[in-house]
Fold:
Amino acid sequence: MYKNFFRYLISAIFLLGFSVNSNADFKVGFVYVGPTGDHGWTFQHHEGRNAVEAAGIKTTFVESVPEGADAERVIRQLAQSGHDLIFTTSFGYMDPTNKVAKDFPNVKFEHATGYKREHSNVSTYSARFYEGRTLLGHIAGKMTKTNTIGYIASFPIPEVIRGINAMTLAAQKVNPNIKTKIVWVFTWYDPGKEAEAAQALIDQGADVIMQHTDSTAPVQTAEKAGVWSFGQASDMQRFAPKSILTSIIDDWAPYYVERAIAARDGTWNQQDTWHGLKEGMVAMGPYNSAMGADLVKEVEQLQKDLASGKVHSFTGPIYDQKGNILVAEGKVADDGMLAGMSVYVKGVEGDIPK
Amino acid sequence: MIKIEKRDDAPMALYFFTPFIAIILTILGGGIIFYILGFNPIEALKFYFITPISNLYGLSELLLKATPLCLIAIGLSFCFKSNNWNIGAEGQLTFGAIVGGGVALLFYNQEGFYILPLVILAGAIGGMIFALIPAILKTYFNTNEILVSLMLVYVSKLLLDYLVVGPWSNPEGFNFPETRQFSDSSRMPLLFEGLRIHAGIFLALAAVMLSWFTLYKTYLGFQIKVSGLSLKTAKYAGFKGKTMILFVFMISGACAGLAGVGEITGPIGQLHRMISPDYGFTAIIVAFLGRLNPFGIIFASLVVALTYLGAETAQIFLQIPKYTGQVFQGMILFFLLASDYLLFFKVKILNLKKNELRH
Structure:
């Protein structure tokens, strides 16, 4: 009996020591798909990491990790080398993240933009970028003279289609004659291809360009051609000061800090996060004064209304390209529909690549 | 004034020793770079070259990474030995993976011991066919194989893009650019529980043995080597030059195709756009570091694989930028070429006096 008592005591002390110890050693790992200096997607995740570091939590990152066979090793190494929470910041890390999570039940994993949470220690998170697209659509609809908006798209996944649709719907509201022209580049980051696509759209009469890719090439092409553009992922104003009307900014910092503290303090739970303008995960860059004070005011009001929920990006009636009703009058699209969106709304030109 | 002369008495024993000199110089050079970047060079080098392979998992990862490099480099050694500059192994790898992956998808959700061999065979044939394009163009139309094989890399990558975005994309995958996960019947068997090293390593070892036998023990190997040393001699001896070009490209393509199919049926398990972090190009360094010798290539593939793993651990533990891995690979090649040059050529610094110049 005494023997058992001592055994419990020793293990209790050991556990206590261990948990205190692990608190001090608490470390967060980040896996990036690009270089930290890409001025887009990875740059913003890195800013989020800096915020975690500023909150007094140790962090590590590995950049430019290919989404192939290497990802699993990097994630596993981070888990093995004492990281307690690991953010894997690209869609292609979905399967490797879940695979490693299975072998490290005490490590927490956060996978960006994915949909698989196969183990209780895997959370997913993404941002409602489409709310930003609604603002872009409103601005584009007002600013275009040719009624043609050019859109550089990466891959025909729901997130990208959602952005195209949200933008088109908002633009139609202020300008029923607008057309959305799309060029698919099938890459997230390729300055050469993105610049060519931007030029092709400009040549087809688009006088407002936006992109769902990560480089600064489209805004720079727009600046040279003298048409309007928008920054993507980070504030790209300094790359095209005249042309950029505003930027959609991915602000991961509040979420990263919150989740890191939760994991450190033992209050971390599995969740599927989808934050937007309200929580600040989607933010807007400064509005270009060329928009005029009235339009800036309008857009700022719309931004507030989207954040408060008074206005929803997908409010009916919404029709697909053939005129079938997608969302009835007075209704808004639910998250399930948004998450699986795979058709264009009326007013978008062309077909989704199959 | 500097004068460069060919050495008549270049010691051939040193020829097999220069790769080691190159590696030592690379490590020293790396240490200096780490020092300049503000890291303790000894500690940084330890994280670079020792930590990654200090446990079983690390060793398995090293072999996993070295397998495709070794396979491709073995294939390339046939081309390079016979003076055929196949730069497009990356494309042959991709095309092999496309054909092999296509067969794997064809047998989706089916059982059968014959499926994996079929997938592997398809991969080898795919790579072979793709390598035949520059070979045929070279033999019959006198095109430059460097250019053609290199440009075909982009063709195969774009084809892969098209397939994984379009017709082969996972029907349940929300249009993300990837295929279904292959069924277990078309996956490489793992050698050990919990480690990723898979049966593909036997393909690499078989390629090493076969290439050694072919290159050093057969008449064919002799022909390949002779035409590499002197095309004129080969012609004079009556060797069939055209057939040989086709042959070495087919071997090279098949090896690259096997590497591709090994990756997709091994650690990746599906087709997507990122199946190879440019193994086909890195393997060129491996082939030369290994002196185009099958056993040298085994060694070289392990060294180069280690530069990949080391770059990751160095970033995890010391936050050294991951691109140092590429710097290391570049340095190895640079020092190797430099020491080869100095081996075969003498650099004489002639001390000419002014009045001598006037003559």
